[in-house]
Amino acid sequence: MTNMIQSAKDQVADLTQAAYERASAAGALPAGGGAVKATIEIPKDASHGDYASSFAMAGAKALHMAPRAIAQAIVDHLELEGSYFGKVEIAGPGFLNFTLGPKWYGEVLSTVESEGAAYGSGAGGAGKKVMVEFVSANPTGPMHMGNARGGVLGDTLANVLARDGWDVWKEFYVNDAGNQINKFARSIYARCMQLTLGEDNYQFPEDGYQGGDIRELAQGFLAQEGVSFPGGTAEEDWMEQMAQFGLERNIPKMEEDLKKYGIQYDQWFLESSLHNSGYVVETVQLLTGKGWTYEKDGALWLNTTELLKKKYMAEGKTQEQVDKLDLKDDVLRRANGFYTYFAADIAYHRNKLEERKFDLAINIWGADHHGHVARLQAALDGLGLDGSHRLVIVLMQLVNLLQDGKPVRMSKRTGKAIALHDLLDEISVDAARYYFNNRAATSPLDFDLDLAVRQDSENPVYYVQYAHARICSLIARLAGEDGAAVPAAGAVDAAVLTAAEELALVKSLAQYPEELHLAARDYDPSRINRYLTALAGDFHRFYNACRLKGEEPDVLAARLKLADTVRSVLANGLNLLGVTAPEKM
Q: pLDDT tens across 359-405, in order?
């Protein structure tokens, strides 16, 4: 797909090189300029042109000439006819400042028109396979605010990567095995006992899940079992039934909540399948076979310390730096014979990289898991899977929920968590998805419930959606009142677009492919939010400065096409975010 900013940079390089060759042939410049490595930048100050080449300074040593003399010879031999540029000026020590002309502005409009919904797409992923695993919340209770942020970050990142040429797979890892499921089952059992015998006659476990959802599951279980509970049967004999009953109800609820949130996965992967198939045992045996485990106190340990030392040294740390780190080993199999969550996690990621052959695995994790990142990567390194490069962890900071200017307290342990389904009863899916992706994952997020429902320019999602709706209304109004229709790009005379607001708006449109690529490269989909907010702002400034009604036909046509092109790109970006682009507001 076409990146008009890169096309302009490429043309600066081609025009400059051609001018040098003509100048050299004419004797105005010596030979030796063919190897000059010039930079081409976009000046921060628009008065310095649109693109600046350092060819003259970069070539001074090879050509044995002053940079400004080189620059003058280049300018004297430049041929801009038919190019994207209207003029070139020399500035400072010898910068060649190129100013864009109508041809480039017209081609931006044509490119957006011809590429349609695919505009902005790139080839950064080169068709390689990537799995984005996100949310992966324990199925022991309702999903909460942290899951809400991780959900939109993961889903939007997956969308961005797909548009940048990756073959994307979205996955939810269901932790349906291990200690948390045992605690889940015991919590349901305890509530069943309390409902049967009375709360004062059965003590609820101190570490149990105390949410109201556990009580509801217990009531449902008792209704199903009838008089058979407890029936003299020991607690341990109920555990598997309790766990299965709870999971069969909680997992579909999670799927339903996420579907309402606009998220659907390619696969819900069960942790239990790794244990039942023997894949966890096999993975640990592979680590043992490679010499990375040892036994102590009846348990099997991973020599994480040595694996991390090897990883850090390969990354450039010195021996002294590594020695100062507080490195510790990890248990893979406890003395009681049970395999740890870490062992299952290694097996799961081996499954991603080795069995299913994903080139890259990306996980969205809470920041509290930061200590786990390097250890998991190192374990995969130990298996020969290059986890240090093929496993990327995007760490997500906390969400602070505000209402009436005050924090809304959340506590999953006390049953007072703000659940995702409760949040979506208060605000729209559009507002939730836009807000949770409005800052980089590395930044804490203040989510203002009052602001999220406001219908004014202070609300960022409203601000962007309003720009789209405003353009739709404008086009409909002009069509109804004046019979004006949006022209094809080829019928527009871009030379009539001369106002600063018009030119800035076209440049903003051209920036979209670059923003999308950078969002994919940096695993930062919030770049799309910032871009859309900036584009909406540029449109509002254009709308206030450049009238349409009553203008000359060629000016009206160009401005109408420009407005409609903005509408198209706003809808494009909002679609990536999973946010609607309304035609009326």
A: 999 999 999 999 899 999 999 999 999 999 999 999 999 888 888 88
Residue 409's pLDDT band, with cuts at 50, 70 and 90, is low
DSSP H/E element including 331:
strand 330-333
CA distances from 74 to 26, 409, 499 (A): 11, 65, 30
The pairing of strands 299-302 and 330-333 is antiparallel
Helices (H), 341-428: 341-350, 370-382, 387-390, 420-426
Beta-strand pair 129-133/360-366? parallel
Q: Kindly report, residue by residue over 495-523, the tens digit of the pLDDT.
A: 999 999 999 999 999 999 999 999 999 99
First to last CA, the chain: 33
Report yes or no: 304 and 327 within 8 Å, Cβ to Cβ: yes
The Cα 451–Cα 447 span in angstroms is 8
Indicate the SS3 state at residue 548: coil
* DSSP letter, residue 479: H
pTM of the model: 0.92
Distance from the Cα of residue 472 to its chain's centroid: 28
Determine how many CB atoms are found less than 10 A away from the CB of residue 216. 13
What is the 3-state secondary structure of 429-477?
HHHHHHHHCCCCCCCCEEEEHHHHCCCCCCCHHHHHHHHHHHHHHHHHH
439: Cα within 13 Å, side-chain hemisphere: 14
Amino acid at 276: N
